UniProtKB/TrEMBL annotation:
GO terms for biological process: xylulose metabolic process. It comes from the Bacteria. Belongs to the FGGY kinase family. This is Carbohydrate kinase. GO terms for molecular function: D-xylulokinase activity. Residues 6-197 form the Carbohydrate kinase FGGY N-terminal domain. Residues 247-306 form the Carbohydrate kinase FGGY C-terminal domain. Pfam families: FGGY_C_2, FGGY_N. One of its GO terms (cellular component) is cytosol. InterPro entries: ATPase_NBD, FGGY_C_2, FGGY_N. Keywords: Kinase, Transferase.
Length: 464
């Protein structure tokens, strides 16, 4: 049997940790999932178990390198952002991997604002709203101010994807997608670290910058292969679209957060847009990506429970729904309003509606999805300033929801709206980022499956 050339991708999410093996056609030929028991930091807050993560990566690598049916040519990593690993000179972690949901001390935030001016200016220049520990730069600032002795021992502060790579390569780098992920570290106008970072000498704790289309030479268990520097998972998920589509588009990546990404916007974000939960990411090659976000997936989970309880249904009642065109059209017409009258809000507002006004769970659900889509429309429009934009791609959970997709197509009737499906977008993006370092074949054109939704009801989605 001939060994199949493959790349191994470790995709580390907040809940699930996965390893995927792709062949040169980007087909999954092996996968495994794991969940680790969380540990606790010195304050008793839950955090990632770094030792379990390390053991899992190396156990999987040893096993895959030993297989006769695979020829491992490369390894790369995709991981969640806003999390830093502080290492000493030997590369050993000095602290737990602090949870990005850990509360941030208000007095320290106020001290920062007093020293560097109110947050609006910093937010605008770094395209990062003040998000507490979700701003990883503020995590490092906290260590410096609260634990100076520990700060002095830190050789590198590595974002999680780059730490995963560091474990295998021994090369400490700062990836652009991680540095540009709402960290408050990066000045998007100057394309460098923000002056406050340099004044605080935090840049001396950050590893050399690296675009994430590069790779290192690695030897392990008598095998030689390439290893990428790792990528922030949301930015990795955008890569297949950037490679496959060259006309301007936006991607609405739906999950717990629904994030609209526009890689083609040139204008910097305004203070008002930042206040409305907009931010910027960096692409793996360094270009800025304007993004807006709503907490729609989480709200969907909460409101589905509420509807199910009211109508005495199980919480999965909506999964069997096919589009009821007559009901969708009636609800859309009854709630028709000029799009310019729609206002941005943190939630859809459906939680304020009395459920006894609806006859069935189905009707309530349609009204709820319409409210979500209205919220999505306003949020997405915040970052859609380019007149050249013609296409919207939607991936993730809502892309499979025909009710959502049809309402969305109605609101964006002047654009082409597509539901996109792709097996493991973040993992494939991490593989594609270093394609030239391991794959001898051209990038296939079948990675993304599209379904077109017309901006009218009733509909017949078209498979492309």
């Amino acid at each position: 049997m001939m060994a199949v050339p493959v790349i191994v991708i470790f995709d580390v999410g907040k809940t699930n940790k996965k390893v995927f093996v792709f062949n040169e056609d980007y087909e999954i030929v092996y996968e495994r999932s794991a969940r680790f028991t969380e540990t606790y930091d010195e304050d008793g807050d839950v955090c990632e178990n770094l030792e379990s993560l390390r053991s899992s990566v190396f156990n999987a690598l040893h096993e895959l390198l030993a297989r006769k049916d695979f020829m491992v040519r490369a390894v790369n990593f995709s991981g969640y952002g806003a999390s830093l690993v502080f290492t000493d000179e030997s590369g050993k972690p000095l602290t737990p991997l602090y949870n990005y949901l850990k509360s941030y001390p208000l007095d320290l935030q106020n001290e920062f604002d007093k020293k560097y001016g109110q947050g609006d200016r910093i937010a605008a220049e770094t395209s990062s709203p003040a998000l507490g520990s979700l701003n990883s730069g503020m995590q490092l600032y906290r260590v410096k101010n609260e634990r100076p002795a520990l700060f002095n021992k830190i050789r590198y502060a590595l974002h999680l994807p780059q730490y995963l790579s560091f474990m295998v390569t021994g090369q400490a780098v700062s990836g652009l997608t991680s540095i540009g992920c709402h960290t408050r570290l990066w000045d998007f106008g100057k394309q460098n670290y923000h002056p406050w970072v340099i004044e605080e000498e935090l840049d001396k704790k950050l590893a050399p910058l690296m675009t994430e289309d590069q790779a290192f030479d690695v030897e392990l268990d008598g095998h030689s292969f390439k290893a990428g520097p790792g990528l922030h998972d949301s930015s990795a998920a955008l890569i297949p679209y950037l490679i496959n589509f060259h006309e301007p588009f936006i991607l609405i990546s739906t999950g717990t957060w629904c994030i609209t990404m526009n890689p083609f916007r040139e204008e910097v974000l305004t203070a008002q847009e930042l206040d409305q939960d907009c931010l910027c990411y960096l692409q793996y090659k360094g270009k800025a990506v304007a993004a807006s976000r709503i907490f729609a997936g989480y709200e969907h989970e909460q409101q589905v429970k509420r509807i199910a309880e009211h109508f005495n249904e199980h919480t999965g009642f909506y999964r069997g729904f096919h589009l009821n065109a007559e009901l969708a059209e009636r609800i859309f017409q009854e709630n028709a309003e000029k799009t310019e009258n729609l206002k941005w809000s943190k939630t859809s507002g459906f939680d304020k509606k009395m459920l006894n006004r609806f006859k069935t769970a189905e009707e309530a659900y349609y009204y709820f999805i319409l409210d979500i889509v209205k919220q999505q429309f306003v949020s997405s429009r915040l970052v859609m300033k380019s007149k050249q934009l013609k296409r919207i791609f939607v991936d993730g959970g809502f892309s499979k929801n025909q009710i959502y997709m049809n309402f969305l197509a109605r609101f964006f009737s002047e654009m082409e709206v597509y539901a996109a499906s792709m097996a493991q977008a973040s993992a494939i993006g991490a593989a594609l980022a270093i394609h030239e370092h391991w794959n001898t074949q051209p990038i296939p054109d079948h990675i993304i499956e599209l379904k077109y939704y017309a901006g009218k009801i009733p509909f017949k989605p078209t498979h492309l």
